[in-house]
Design a protein that fits this description.
Distance between the termini: 42 Å
Radius of gyration: 20 Å
Number of helices: 9
Number of domains: 1
CATH class: Alpha Beta
Structural class: alpha+beta
Shape: globular
CATH architecture: 2-Layer Sandwich
CATH topology: Alpha-Beta Plaits
């Protein structure tokens, strides 16, 4: 839909559980040729929008590096010879972005100018960086960074550490498209893979990780695909009630971090974020099959404001 950003509940990743997942191929693969209406119901809620970004992702600093950049070498020993069609960690992803959440506390050596410089360097090579001042004892600063390459995110983490900010929690994930959303328009697909953050006018921030449950009698991964798709369709309808008030980005992390997804919420107010999460927990997909990690909440602002307020107010 023109002028709107698509936000979704993304696909479930594989994992080890108390019950074996079904080996039936039909339980794991999405059917092809799903209609737009069916996909829209199954994949989540719309809240704010991004232009088509697939062709633009390799912009300043994100140009495709030759094999061997960032210190990597090919199996032949020649850093200029690629040996695999799949990009390595130092190269741009074939599709989508790396996402790193850092939750920080200042040490005695923390310096605002150095921290802002680390963010500026990350942005100068094409990374998106969102900064937030956080509530509570768990962390003081939240940083969400997105890049088509992994090394700029690692460099940002190093730069913030050198600026005197200690990472007390972090989360690593990737943007992705739901297995329930085949056949969606390119504009919506690009908004999921290449989101533009933060959304305008939504300074309320929240992040939490989550996984699908694997318990006897409540194992998400033993459900048939059609049943899972129906549950997610209902889940998405609840979320769409918050269209225009909440923007959600769900990123996949199976094999990359302790949970299966990272969920980032931006809202007009923290009341909107609270209401959204509360209402969605009554939906069977959450009530019966979701496990949640710690929540981090705060306010989005420019880096100088965030670092200065945390250190001086």
């Amino acid at each position: 839909m023109p002028g709107e950003t698509f936000v979704e509940w993304n696909r479930e990743g594989a994992g080890v559980g108390t019950e074996p997942a079904s080996t039936d191929e039909g339980n794991r693969r999405a059917p092809t040729g799903a209609g737009e209406e069916e996909v829209g119901q199954a994949s989540g809620f719309v809240a704010g929008s991004a232009p088509s970004l697939g062709a633009a992702v390799r912009r300043a600093g994100d140009a495709v590096p030759s094999a061997g950049q960032d210190g990597s070498e090919s199996a032949s020993g020649d850093p200029n010879v690629a040996t695999s069609a799949t990009p390595g960690p130092g190269e741009p992803r074939e599709e989508g972005l790396y996402v790193l959440h850092l939750f920080l506390k200042p040490r005695g050596t923390a310096d605002v100018e150095s921290a802002c410089g680390a963010v500026k360097r990350a942005r100068s090579v094409g990374s998106q960086v969102v900064t937030a001042a956080l509530f509570g004892h768990k962390a003081d600063v939240g940083v969400m960074a997105l890049s088509s390459r992994s090394w700029p995110l690692r460099d940002l983490q190093t730069g913030l550490s050198q600026a005197g900010f200690e990472t007390v929690y972090s989360y690593t994930s990737l943007t992705e498209v739901s297995e329930y959303a085949e056949g969606i328009p390119d504009e919506i697909r690009d908004a999921r893979l290449y989101p533009q953050l933060p959304p305008e006018g939504m300074a309320a921030f929240s992040f939490y990780p989550m996984s699908k449950r694997r318990q006897p009698g409540r194992n998400w991964y033993t459900l048939p695909f059609d049943e899972r798709k129906s549950l997610m369709s209902s889940h998405g309808r609840v979320g769409r009630e918050f269209r225009g008030r909440v923007v959600q980005l769900v990123t996949g992390s199976s094999g990359l971090d302790d949970y299966e997804w990272g969920v980032t919420l931006f809202g007009i107010s923290h009341d909107d974020l609270k209401a959204c999460v509360y209402e969605m927990r009554f939906d069977p997909a959450s009530a019966n099959y979701a496990d949640f990690g710690p929540f981090y909440a705060g306010m989005v602002a420019d880096p100088a404001t965030v670092f200065e307020r945390v250190l001086t107010s």
